[in-house]
Amino acid sequence: MSKLLIKGGRVIDPAAGLDGIRDVLLESGKVKEIGVRVKGQGARVIEAKGMLVFPGLIDMHVHLRDPGRPDKETIASGSRAAALGGFTTICCMANTEPPIDNPAAVEYIIAKARTEAAVNVLPIAAVTKGLRGEELAEIGRCRMEGAVAFSDDGHPIMRADMMRRALEYTRQFDVPVIAHCEDTGLSAGGTMNEGAVSTEIGLPGIPSLSEEIMVARDVLLAREYGRVHIAHVSCARSVKFIRDARREGASVTCETCPHYFTLTEDAVRHYDPNTKVNPPLRTKADRQAIIRGLRDGTIEVIATDHAPHTVDDKNVEFNQAANGLVGLETALGLVLTELVGKKALTLKEAVAKLTANPARILRLAGKGTLRPGADADLIVVDPRQTWQVDPRQFASKSRNTPFTGWTLKGKVIHTIVGGKQIVRDGQFA
Ligand code: DOR
User: Fold this and answer.
1) Which protein residue has the closest C-alpha to ligand 1 atom 6?
2) Residues of the chain with pLDDT under 50
3) Which domain holds residue 176?
């Protein structure tokens, strides 16, 4: 396989504690050498002076809609969106039609990804059969087939005993259960955050308690039974519960998504269905608490919860619209502009939440770092370029973003997956 030398960029590799100007040599799908001056005889050279060089980003929360809804997204289209957004590894959620709740379905995703994916695609399998929360799925066999985590995302596991059994069982495989925390009794009928804004604009509310109560339950269960990763954390008290539980030694990690540190319930005032997401956009205080949780390390992961939906499913009355927004092509820009640009996080902290931390939580050997021997997954980003979010240009099949027209800083120039250049000069190679 050909050699690639990425020359003179500012390499940020949090897993290796590195932030400095380096050359990176890729050979045979692996990182071969990294140093101040690397020769790389016969290698094709990518000039990266003035650019940022990161390990390829990892998104541990993506909906690819295969099987079932190829009109919303496919493995091909979703992984292309990922590559343009700087993600070289994406983990796809199990709430497809039918769900990924058995070994054959896991095998299907892996086989399909091998032929059509532009980036690494790793399946997350369901915790319970049919995502119904009543009976454990074939967790052991799904793990053998290659599932990297287990989640009923989109649906909470309402029964605590079921969650307990899932944790006890997954513990032996050293994989986390990714918890969608929502008490469906409390959230029933709601379509936005419950509070002053929902009252004012007349939409039925989802109290933050619906999330908090389940986060509280799951961090308690994690103290006793196994490893929990809390998905899409949206509110202040969830951050507090997770922080306290971790201090007391519970095996709890968590993620938030760009929309929870950039937007609040105020964005819903115009009834734009692209602001409808589950959990809903919360208050200013919640948003600030999310940013504090990112800063102090309670929230170790930024994931997109990329949730593609068709125009038909979105362009309806707010209460009827599907939940979710696409995130793969805007996430890095939002992180660089809103967190790093506003000094909430250092560049190294931000990159860790998109690379080293998800790799560690999912035990992805050879990923999330540029240490010699690691997989040759890498991106080159121009920190000076600004760009405008234009959903018409998305590689995703869906366009449901609330960030249309936003000006973001930091453009993905090159994306390299396993030593192969997938994106070159911001376009598919
Ligand atoms: O907004 C959401 N959309 N939240 C979820 O938990 C599921 C997701 C989806 O699958 O569309």
Assistant:
1) 154
2) none
3) 56-361
